[in-house]
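Narrative summary of target 7.
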Amino acid sequence: MNRVFMFPGQSSRYPEMLERVIEAFPPARKIVQLASDILGRNLFAQYQVGDSAFDRNQDVQVGVFLTSHLYLKALEENGVEANVSLGLSLGEYNHLVHIGAIDFADALVLVDARGRVYDEGAKGMMAALFPINVEELEAILSRTAKVGCVKIANYNTPSQYVIAGETDAVLAAMKLAEDELSIDPVIIEKQIPMHTSVFRSVADALLPHLKRANFRAPSRPYVSNVVGGIVENVGPERIVELLAQHGYSPVLWRHAIDNILLETRTRYSWKLARAESSTTCCRSAGTPTRSSRPTCRLISRRTLAAFAPLCANMCGRLRFESRYQCSCQRAAQASVGHGRFVGSSRAIRTRIDRANIAPSPSAAFRGCHHCA
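Modeled conformation, tokenized:
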């Protein structure tokens, strides 16, 4: 089995997060004490005071970074390892620790400085919108540009995005989305417009701290939010450059996941296997039958489902309803997995094309069969 560790961003915070991981993994207490000594303040007390613990973005970032690191150590102590990881926004710093590009202590000091300059930076707002496609969102943002600067800050999924920018402009975009598309935007940050041009000055303030950090060439793949994929031949200077851009550039989270799946598809979900004369796909997914024809074989519906985004109509189901065929068996009309991807994502089509899987003529690209 191949695993990927995914580290969350700062919006994943909740008051009891540190207490819960310490309770589940007692050795975490020593790490929290070490972090308290490094930063010169009592983190045990800091994160026992409820929501007020997160009044400053500095404390939000330190708390989420530390908690994610504790979960990482708990997994590793119990023999759960991963050769690949990635992190969303703040989570990229946990990712850098995991891949060996920086030590925990140095990353903690850097995250503390990052939160401090974020608190001192330009003010604004961030909001999550779902379900919406990128064309609809871009049309809304173009209409609200006259109110102020608002941009896409996170490309999270084909139907979920985060916008950020000046407060009035974000509120205007939220109202348009609600009125015209009947979606319910959620404010996730009331003060800080991360990952937009509004935050460019903050990136400049963070740069000296990045340059002082002890980065080194990673021992595992580095997945950058800015690039949206694996960065090849990366060294300390390139890491500093990308982390500086990180503050005012959109998070290409969806692109990063797509690219990891493509780069590692032979080791991950697709598991395409070609045989000259041994097996062929049968209608019970993953169950081979004898055949003299060459074929490709998908392991199971479960692995195929890992590639499917949620239904665009927000019914909560995976877009996994139409039928896909092995390209080498199209003439015989053999099918794999009893499933299809439903959606309007170019990335989905690209993944299927590059994996030698062809959609059946009946494939539809809208909602799933439950609500289409």
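The mean pLDDT is 77.
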